[in-house]
Amino acid sequence: MATVLIFSDKNNMALELLTAAREIGAAAIKAVTINDSQAAQELANAGAEVYNIDQPDLVLADAAAVASALAQAVEQLQVDTILLSSNRRCKEYAGRLAQIIGAGCLTDVTALQVNGGQIECQRNALGGATVATQAITAARQVIAIRPRTYEAAAAASGGSVNSLQVNVQPSAVKVLEVRGKEGDSVDIEAAEILVAVGQGMESKDDLPLAEELARKLGGEVACSKPLATDKKWLSEERVVGLSGKKCKPQLALLFGISGQVQFTVGIRDARVIVSVNTDENASINQMSDYILTADLKQVLADLNKAL
Amino acid sequence: MNIVVALKQVPDLQQIRIRNRQPVFDDVPLTLGNIDKNALEAAVLIKEAQGGKVIALSAGDENVEDTIKEALAAGADEAYLVIDDELKGAESSLVAQVLAAAIKNMEDVDLILFGEGSADNYSGQVGSRVAELLGLPQVAFASSLEVNGTTATVTRSLEDCHEVVEVSLPAVITVLSDINEARIPSVTQILKAGKKPKEVVELDDLEVQLPDQSPVKTISNLAPDSQRKKVVVKSVDELIQALEAEGVIRR
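^ inputs. structure came back:
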């Protein structure tokens, strides 16, 4: 594998990309940072050859400008393979960067494997019903990898911080305000244990039972989309599935979840899956390790008592 | 205010069955992507408040002429369709070139809306590619959108914050599904949809140079191989024992 260029606006994700680049056998790894000398230093400390663009008129909110800057970096550094993180910010850049440099592009990639010199990427398709293995056949490739697919790179020698100059056009995008997301700051993707509830839970009054179990197990409560968007029992931060979070906990305890693919795509990477349902034929049972056909309220209460 | 909404014809995902890990498309009806409908709704709301025209743009095989009626019923004023068998399941970069070429043929386009990702492939790159091809600014992941003359104020929802930006028009904006609730057209609207103007062009009519080979190849596309134990437990005690043996509780 030739030289690989990595970029993410989030440095923890850039460190994950560094690991990804090493795992696909990159001959050399170059990284770009934008107006972030601290991130540049951290990446260099992890062994990357870093190029920091220190030009305050280049703002992350202007995808056209950032894609152009990255494209200029691609030309100056002479690379053909670019890894981005597939968070929203970088996913927005990915298509535009690919268009400028004439690259093929894949986003939301969940696994990489090199086969005969070609990078094969896995990503969900058909709304999560299938997993496609795809490869970019164009000479240049932009691959956006889902956060947490790889571990962040640890300290390593051989890194350096350099500077890179790019042309920045006057911006057509002006940031008026940045607001934090209010309320729930839970990170269910980081949880080792998830207690997930679905529409089989009949009353909001039963929710504290799930919360108690999550607390006892040191985990978090998660839910299927309707519980957040329709019933509004829980915040959207807790939604597992295609339009929510993709989680891979050690243990997923699913209560009252039937098993539509829109949900299961977000939990199918869990190590152990337990489903509790009144319907012994629920489709979720086909993808569970342990199946308990019982009233979920009673099971929650019994678990809380026993643990 | 002329607004183009790009919509993708996709198989109805709820109706795809899996057989031997292969997706089965037999008798699965075609529809428009769910988030695309939110993009259309956003356009129709702007038109209703400020006047103008909403053009539903789609590229696909011949079925798209029928599928697009959903958009015409839900408030689009006219449709611009690029129809060619080659466009069925076409790769994102090809679709982007076709859509950009189509938009170049239209007059006075102020705003181009997309869903943040298609219902089936969800790669989210076509909007960005079209913006680049047209040399326009872009804002993705909009959870609110307000047009004020020559600019739009857009709230871009990222994982950790909301970023409110002002972008000069024309611009490409992709929307999140929570930007609005897409309307469900009435029977009368559905009946009238067939009579709304449609411009149908073929690939040859557009100035677009498609490569001989798609830049992305699909090696396989299979339902995940679920290797689960599927052990039926009879009681909470039995469940706790099993989870202890797995080493996932009371470690």
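Chain A has eight helices and 16 strands. The first strand of chain A starts at residue 4 and ends at 7.
thumbs up if we can close this ticket
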